[in-house]
Task: structure prediction
Amino acid sequence: MPGQRLVGTATLLGLVVLAGCAGFLGGGDEPEATVTPAPVPETAERAATDRGRTGGPGGDVGNGSADYASLEPTCDRPPGLVVAVQVGALSNNDPDTDDGIRTAWRFAAPSNRDVTGPYANFRRVINTSYRPLLEAETVTYGPVDRGGTTAERTVTVAAATGNSTAYRWRLTRVSGGQYDGCWMTSGVRTLDTPPAS
Result:
């Protein structure tokens, strides 16, 4: 029922925002209290559009870009949760404000930003090479493969047309600078064939 789906979305969003959620989506280390907001260009106005989609990890995607627009990187989010935040933000991007793309940018590691260049380049790359993430109707998350200061996770997205695309997220626990100790995305690559369910 639609009312139940909205309650599920609110509950998931509450879990995403809560500190100390290391056990959710592949955590394990004790959370650190460091808050590390990333610089990102501001929007003139944040639009709160509800594209009518609900859910979270393992199902339909979130409830609108406003749900993700204010999320910032913190060192208390485990790698699996960082992936879920970015995928949710992108799949709920408002094309008028690109708040979802801005959120994904905030969670990109400094090494990732060195490769993609400034935000304008990142935005262009997302809109061209990673378009299926913006059009995702459903998302399937694979397990988090974690080793030391790196982690990887496969994410498969499907559009309303039924076409699916799989991506492999690569994350790094950043060392030094304003992101010291935070899990951030160092790269995302498209897989040739989606993994078997």
User: Anything to note?
Assistant: The beta strands are 138-147, 150-158, 164-173, 183-190. Confidence is low (pLDDT under 50) at residues 1-63. DSSP finds seven helices and four strands in the chain.
